[in-house]
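Hello K.,

You asked for the raw outputs rather than the summary table, so here they are, unedited. I folded two proteins back to back in the same session to keep the settings identical. This is the first:
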Amino acid sequence: MNKALYNKIENVKYLSHFVARAFLIAIICLMVIIALLFGVYFVDLIFNENSSSKPLFNGYIIVSQSMVPTININDGIVVKRVDNDKYKVGDIISYVTNDSRFKGSVVTHRIVNKENDTISSSIYTTKGDNNISVDANSVYTSMINGKVLFRIPKIGYLYTFLSNPINFIFCMIGSVIILIIGNISRTIKILNSDN
C-alpha cells in the first residue's frame, strides 16, 4: 500500500476515534450534570418547608427576540428560585405570564420597576431588552420561577436535534461503532507490529 494513502487512512481513523470519544465523554458529562441537578432538586424538595414552591433550579430555551442582544433565540438559560421576594430592579426573571395572548407561557424579561404589595410579595413591571415598551401585565411574586443565573449560547439547536429520539440513537450508535472500529484497527496494528 502506498505510504501516503496509509497515512491518510490512519489520520482519518485517529480523527474519527477522537471525535467519537469526545462525543461520548460529552454525553457522560451531560449525564453526570443531569444526575447532580436531580440530586439538588430532590434535596431541595425534602428540605424546603414550602412544598408547593417552584424548583430551586430550572432551565429554558429562548424562542423570541425580546431579550436580544442580552439573550438570543435558541440560547438556553438556567434560572434559580429566589426566596423571600428578594428580586430587584435590573434582574432578569422567568415567570409564567397571565397575558391572555400567551396564557401559561414562560416569559424571560428584565425587572424595570418593583412595588411592595406585602412583606413577602411584590408587583413587578417587566420589559424585554429588545422591546420598545414595558409589558402590559404586571408580574406578581407568585408567578416568578426564578432569576436568570447564566445563559448557554445556541444550546437550543443541540436540544432540538437530540430531542428527536432517532437523532439521539443515531449519534450514540454511530459513536460506539466508530470507537469499536478504531479499537479493532489499533489492536490489529499492534498485532501486526509484533510479528
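The second followed immediately with the same parameters:
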Amino acid sequence: MPFPFLSPSQSLWLLRATVALLIMAHAVMRIINGTVPSFGSFLESQGLPNGQLWVWAITATELVAGALLLAGRYVRWAAAALFFILAVGIVLIHRHLGWWVGEHGTGGSEYTVALMAMLVAAAATDRGSASRP
C-alpha cells in the first residue's frame, strides 16, 4: 500500500485520536504543573467570576470529551464542546498574541485553529455515534 499506508477510516481514527490526546495532554499538564489557580485568576481578570471553578470545568470537559473522542462515542457532542472551549481561548488569550505560535511568534491562534479544524473533520465524519446511547 502506498503512502500514507492507512485507509481513509484509519486516517480519520488517527486524526480523532491525535486531537483528543493533544487536548487531554493540555488538561493533564494544567493539573500537573499546578496552573489552575493562575489560570483561574486570569479568567477572573477577564470578568468571569469563580475563575478556578471555570478552569476545573474546562479541564474536566477536555478530559471527558477527549476520552469520548478516543472511544468514538458522542463524537459530535465532544467535538462541539472542545471547539467552543478553543474558540473562547482564542477570544480571551490567543488573539492578543497574534497568529503565529512558534518561530514567528508566541502563543498565537495558529495551533488552536488547526485543532478546531481537526475537531470539525472528526465531527463531520462521525457515523452517528452522537445519537447512540
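Residues 8-32 form the longest helix (25 residues).

Happy to rerun anything if the numbers look odd on your end.

Regards,
P.
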